[in-house]
Amino acid sequence: VQLQASGGGLVQAGGSLRLSCAASGRTFTNWLMGWFRQAPGKEREFVASITWNLGTTNYADSVKGRCTISRDRAENTVYLQIDFLNPEDTAVYYCASRRPMSNSWNFWGQGTLVTVSS
């Protein structure tokens, strides 16, 4: 399984960004796909997840209402739209995938840096 994250960059506070995660290497039926982020000096934290089949979503409280996770099964791509960005959103964003019945996230992408200027 390979996960390729892209779409990061420098954006002003209040702006928006859409991150993409291209997934390859297998079919992802019944898998869980997610986004995490790691800010400088902080631990990696969960941002959002989506089930591949039904598209059921889950969000961290810190981004609820500002983030939308989605997936395009035909393109094998997962997206993370972040609106009303603020400097606290500055982080490296990672996409990840989890096998059915797994208790942990099994595969990680390389990360894409999002920097929000005030």
How is this structure best described in words?
The chain is mainly β and 118 residues long. The protein contains no helices and 11 strands. It has strands spanning 2-6, 9-12, 17-24, 32-38, 45-51, 57-59, 67-72, 77-82, 91-98, 107-108, 112-117. The strands form 2 sheets. Strands 2, 4, 5, 6, 9, 10 and 11 form a 7-stranded mixed sheet that branches. A 4-stranded antiparallel sheet has the order 1-3-8-7, with no helix packed on it. The termini are far apart. 31% of the residues are buried. The mean pLDDT is 96.
- Number of DSSP strand runs: 11
Mean pLDDT: 96
Classify the secondary structure makeup into a structural class: mainly beta
Query: Which consecutive residue ranges, at least 5 long each, have pLDDT under 50?
Result: none
Which strand-content bin applies to the residues? over 45%
- The topology string of helices and strands comes to EEEEEEEEEEE
How many DSSP helices? 0
Distance between the ends: 37 Å
Main sheet characteristics: 7 strands, mixed
Mind telling me the C-alpha Rg? 13 Å
Shape: globular
Q: Which percent bin holds the helix content?
A: under 10%
